[in-house]
Every structure is written in structure tokens, then in C-alpha cells.
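haha ok so turns out i had the wrong file open the whole time. this is the CORRECT one, sorry everyone. sequence first:
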Amino acid sequence: MPGPASGKRIEIQSYKHNGQLHRVWESTTILKGTRNVIIGANDRTKVKESDGRIWITREPAICYFHSRHWFNVIGMLRNDGVYYYCNISSPFIYEGEMIKYIDYDLDVKVFPDMTFKLLDEDEYELHKHQMNYPHVLDRILYNNVDTLVRWVRQRKGPFSPEFIDQWYERYLTYR
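then structure:
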């Protein structure tokens, strides 16, 4: 099935391994949608948490999803540079006019100077035991952390210097 059409506004749904809905981003504009890659953007979009809390994103963001990688990347455009929040997750699926993925707790935060920090290892360990992640999944997820870190160091894909700027310029044409 092909991906969503450019310009289309869709919802993003994040789940946990046990199938429970974790978080929903109400509206993201598709900038590129293929079978393997979806690039979207949003700004001041409503986010609903599984506990019912609702909040609004504070800055424009470019979202990168790939069907073959166990992570997604959100580049947030702030006054002092681009900050990246990378979710270690299942590859996305596009279904029912929504992007869906399983969030596996581990996150990598990347700063404008391209230094980075692995986050939420304690939460990952807790959920790994609570939800009985198979050993092979643990290996897949940590291998993808390594791949993601390599991309950051190499300035590859969404971490390349021009990526966020080019896609943000495209986003502005839809606003």
C-alpha cells in the first residue's frame, strides 16, 4: 500500500508492546509519503497521552519515519538550533489514514552541536520485564540504537545539515 499523499493531514498513534495506546499527535502534514518513508511536519499540534492529559507542542517539528528501521526521528526547530528526539520503536505502518508504531521507551536526544544522550533505559528495563519482550527484540532494539548513533555521527538522513531546513521550507508552503 502506498503512503499518504503530500499535503494530507494525518494522525500519529504510538502504542506500547502490549497493544495499549500510548500517545496521539492530532495533526501532522505529510511532506513525503512512500511505502518506505514518511516525512511530516507539525507545529503547535495537540498531543493526547494515554492517561488523558493533553498538551500542545511548542515549536515546529519535522518527523521522519522509515518502514525498515526500528526508530523514528523528530527534529524540533528552536531558536538556538535543531534538537532531535529519536524514539526507538517498531517500524511504522500506515493504516486507516494514520501512522502507527510501537514505542519501546528508549530514546536518544540529540542537541544542536550533535552531541547525544540515551534516555529512559530504566523505563525500558521495567517494561521489558513487565511485557516480556523476547530476547531477539532486545537485540534488535539495541542494534537500532547503534544504527541511530552512527547516523548522528555521520550526519546521515534526518541528521544531515540541510534535511530539516529543506523539509521545513516545504512545510511552509502548506500553511
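The longest helix spans residues 135-154.
again sry for the mixup
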